[in-house]
From TrEMBL:
SMART domains: ELFV_dehydrog (SM00839). PROSITE patterns: GLFV_DEHYDROGENASE (PS00074). Belongs to the Glu/Leu/Phe/Val dehydrogenases family. NCBIfam families: PRK09414.1 (NF006929). It comes from Maribacter dokdonensis. InterPro entries: Aminoacid_DH-like_N_sf (IPR046346), Glu/Leu/Phe/Val/Trp_DH (IPR006095), Glu/Leu/Phe/Val/Trp_DH_C (IPR006096), Glu/Leu/Phe/Val/Trp_DH_dimer (IPR006097), Glu/Leu/Phe/Val_DH_AS (IPR033524), Glu_DH (IPR014362), Glu_Leu_Phe_Val_DH (IPR050724), NAD(P)-bd_dom_sf (IPR036291). Residues 190-433 form the Glutamate/phenylalanine/leucine/valine/L-tryptophan dehydrogenase C-terminal domain. Keywords: NAD, Oxidoreductase. It holds the Pfam family ELFV_dehydrog_N. This is Glutamate dehydrogenase. CDD domains: NAD_bind_2_Glu_DH. Homohexamer. The keyword Oxidoreductase applies.
Length: 435
């Protein structure tokens, strides 16, 4: 805290891990006295750089770019790039720290990193986004590589941005390699990668529900966000027989009393991915829906909640409202969407609660599969990738149960994910010595 006290999100993420990992370290001789956690919270490297670019009117803008290379004990740094005006070192360090544990949980050999910029793609033309991405890669290229650090997308960085970033990397380095994941299918991307985080979140929730002999079938589901993760979480939940009644963006949420269906979801995908519009337009189009400006959907009655927008979007009062309304399962599609008090509410009530580092790990896991396919120069089918994704989500669920099951039979998935993620990285760090 003395060193990072000015970074609230980072402190929040570390505290959540420390609460469960420190008691575990105390009980296990091999980790005692090695200051492992102290080493894990200091990034191996943090790069911050100027990104200067020219808008369509010829005006020059300056943004700040970052790459946090957090931990490479078990593999090359891996983690997304976020373009959003709120991006700063604290947010990226929290995301990079979470990523170390998440990547460890996937069972694949990937270290943890994160990066991005305070650039806001909203309202920018395609040409402006291209010029920004090219300028960003002019510096980033010297810090990454297929065996060093492999970035991917996150908030504000989707297929369009990955394309521009990859194009500039290829031009500068004169090599076609798997240096980024989330690529287009015709130039090295993996099938199911766009779907993976949302699908994986639902697969994880499905595994949790199974422990209570429950399923998605016939359940009412509340989802926040309407970006990549939210769209595919909704698609899979609907496919499994659930009624998805909400989506949101930073301007508010829509409630559809009839639930979304394939046609409505296709409208949302076109609205958000192609037209880059606001979710309120959904309520203009469908009479069964209402738009609630400036609000979050946590007061809506549901069985299952999937927060898929951003960090700290669900607080203690929201958690109380969900519990009061009979919610039995919460799986985080976003990173740290529930604040610490909300998580405590869920765990005290002993409902099924999955932290993002476990439930949203399907995205990076499929990125890991994209890296394997790039190295082998092959392309697996949709079914093959989906099968591997399902297996990985089940393995992560098993690990959480192994380390998180308590004496009364309740599974604390937060504890399970933190300890399972920690053990693999800590063992590798011990084996590699003090470096
Ligand atoms: P997108 O940019 O595709 O979508 C983000 C969504 O969240 C949009 O609906 C956006 O609304 C909303 N949102 C963003 N910031 C805020 C805010 N401050 N308040 C309210 N709503 C907000 O991003 P993704 O779907 O990729 O990412 C969503 C979350 O999932 C993030 O936490 C990300 O770190 C996490 N994640 C993503 C993975 C992936 O594979 N994409 C992998 C693992 C985790 P608006 O359009 O108004 O900004």
């Amino acid at each position: 805290i003395a060193r990072n006290g000015h970074e609230p999100e980072f402190i929040q993420a570390v505290q959540e891990v420390a609460e469960t990992v420190i008691p575990y370290i105390a009980k296990h001789e091999i980790y005692n006295g090695k200051n492992i956690l102290l080493r894990m919270v200091e990034p191996e490297r943090l790069v911050s750089f100027r990104v200067a670019w020219v808008d369509d009117d010829g005006e020059i803008h300056v943004n700040r770019g970052y790459r946090i290379q957090m931990n490479s004990a078990i593999g090359p740094y891996k983690g997304g790039l976020r373009f959003h005006p709120t991006v700063n070192a604290s947010i990226l360090k929290f995301l990079a720290f979470e990523q170390v544990f998440k990547n460890s949980l996937t069972t694949l050999p990937m270290g943890g990193g994160k990066g991005g910029s305070d650039f806001d793609p909203k309202g920018k033309s395609d040409d402006e986004v291209m010029r920004f991405c090219h300028a960003f890669m002019l510096e980033l290229n010297r810090h990454i590589g297929p065996n060093t650090d492999v970035p991917a997308g996150d908030i504000g960085v989707g297929a369009r941005e990955i394309g521009f970033l990859f194009g500039m990397y290829k031009k500068i380095r004169n090599e076609f390699t798997g240096v980024l994941t989330g690529k287009g299918l015709s130039w090295g991307g993996s099938k199911i990668r766009p779907e993976a985080t949302g699908y994986g979140t639902v697969y994880f929730a499905q595994s949790m529900l199974k422990t209570k002999n429950e399923s998605f079938d016939g359940k009412t589901v509340v989802i926040s966000g309407s970006g990549n993760v939210a769209q595919y979480a909704a698609e899979k939940a609907i496919l499994l027989g659930a009624k998805v009644v909400t989506l949101s963006d930073s301007s508010g949420y829509i409630y559809d009393k009839d639930g979304l269906n394939d046609e409505k979801l296709a409208f949302v995908m076109d609205l958000k991915n192609n037209r880059r519009g606001r979710i309120s337009e959904y309520a203009d189009k469908y009479a069964s829906a209402e738009f609630f400006a400036g609000e979050t959907p946590w007061n809506v009655k549901c069985d299952i909640a999937l927060p898929c927008a951003t960090q700290n979007e669900l607080d203690q009062q929201d958690a109380k409202n969900l519990l009061k309304n009979g919610c039995i399962c919460v799986a985080e599609g976003a990173n740290m969407p529930c604040n610490a008090d909300a998580v405590h509410e869920f765990n005290n009530a002993k409902i099924l609660f999955a932290p993002g580092k476990a439930s949203n790990a399907g995205g990076v896991a499929t990125s890991g599969l994209e890296m394997s396919q790039n190295s082998l120069r092959i392309s697996w089918t949709r079914e093959e990738v989906d099968e591997r994704l399902k297996d990985i989500m089940e393995d992560i669920h098993d690990s959480c149960i192994e380390f998180g099951k308590e004496e009364d039979g309740f599974c604390n998935y937060v504890k399970g994910a933190n300890i399972a993620g920690f053990v693999k990285v800590a063992d590798a760090m011990l084996a590699q010595g003090v470096i």
